[in-house]
Design goal:
The chain is α/β, with parallel strands linked by helices and 334 residues long. 37% of the residues lie in helices and 23% in strands. It folds into two domains: 273 residues, von Willebrand factor, type A domain (Rossmann fold, 3-Layer(aba) Sandwich); 47 residues, no CATH class.
Length: 334
């Protein structure tokens, strides 16, 4: 089932239309302006992420569970051979009659990689906004939150024109601004689009950015035929390898209408190469069966990856309001 788009009259399900109706969409519904994404910086302050174990070698803003010469006292324990005598806890030693050493939490840096999927299939929505807009808003929230935490942040943006924009992780407002500008531009693409680069290839390309202690956040709908039909197994393998190397968070978006398509009673049309083919009778029944298998493969991919000890899965719908998204994002990132 290689199609660029599916539609019920007046409704695009997957892919990007070349007519002006999408290009003239409302800011925040079918595309994201730079101003809109910049405003997410204020909302990012409302996010409360719990502490995570950090393994980076460089010092930073996050407290590691590793005990060492940090700034924040954590506990005292019995003296062990090799402990620095400068950190003896004389009060506990005097009270117990046995030598005790003070332990401190080390501050460690956590580089963050955002993989933002804005390929053709994301430009669809039947509720509050396109999936592409939801992806862009989530990416900007996470970017600003990690910048406020002092993390080096960067990543890649997969665009509807088949390009991949790469941004090496940096700790600066200017670098964050360039990344957000890239996301905004990717939501406003008006050219005829294809799915372009597969996720498995994008994940391979970010390996050069990964440092010790990196957190990788992949935001996608995980519905591209290129990912599920030909490369579902390699994608699962790549995700598992990445989860073993980094702290991996999968942020999966969807639109409620996509769940209804399997039993959708009205005729659909397939669009490819500028032409529409109307589905009726057996053709539509066969397509819906293929689509059901396609969605089952997607669900299996996400469920299996969610079971991986190095992964977490957070799911979002275009029907959710911004406040719900903030709460769910805060809970899921703990």
């Amino acid at each position: 089932m290689k199609v660029a788009a599916i539609r019920q009259p007046g409704l695009m399900l997957s892919g990007r239309s070349s007519d002006s109706s999408l290009r003239d969409g409302i800011d925040g519904v079918t595309y994201c302006s730079l101003t809109q994404l910049a405003k997410q910086k204020v909302h990012a302050r409302l996010l409360r992420f719990g502490s995570r174990e950090i393994h980076a070698q460089q010092s930073g803003q996050h407290l590691s569970v590793r005990k060492g010469r940090g700034m924040d006292f954590t506990e005292s324990r019995a003296y062990q051979a090799g402990d620095d005598v400068r950190f003896l806890d004389w009060r506990v030693t005097a009270r117990t009659g046995k030598l005790h050493t003070k332990l401190y939490a080390e501050e460690r840096e956590r580089p963050v990689l955002l993989i933002v999927d804005l390929r053709a299939g994301l430009f669809f929505g039947t509720r509050r906004c396109f999936k592409s807009v939801l992806v862009a808003e989530l990416a900007s929230l996470l970017l600003w939150k990690n910048c406020q935490a002092g993390d080096k942040t960067g990543g890649v943006i997969l665009t509807a024109t088949g390009e991949q924009k790469s941004y090496r992780p940096q700790r600066s407002q200017a670098a964050a601004g360039r990344f957000i500008q890239g996301v905004s531009r990717a939501t406003q693409t008006s050219q005829t689009a294809t799915d372009g680069l597969a996720l498995v290839d994008a994940l391979q390309s970010v390996r050069s950015f990964i440092e010790t202690g990196t957190q990788c956040i992949l935001i996608s709908d995980f519905q591209s035929p290129a990912d599920l039909q030909q490369q579902a197994s390699p994608l699962q393998t790549r995700l598992s390898a990445l989860a073993a190397q980094t702290a991996l968070v999968l942020v999966a978006v969807h639109d409620p209408f996509e769940e209804q398509l399997v039993q959708y009673p009205e005729p659909l049309e397939l669009h490819q190469g500028g032409h529409f083919q109307r589905l009726t009778g057996r053709l539509q029944q066969r397509f819906q069966q293929d689509y059901e298998r396609w969605q089952a493969t997607r669900r299996q991919l996400l469920d299996r990856q969610a079971q991986h000890p190095g992964s977490r899965l957070i799911e979002f719908s275009t029907a959710e309001d911004p406040a719900q998204r903030l709460v769910k994002l805060s809970q899921g990132m703990r």
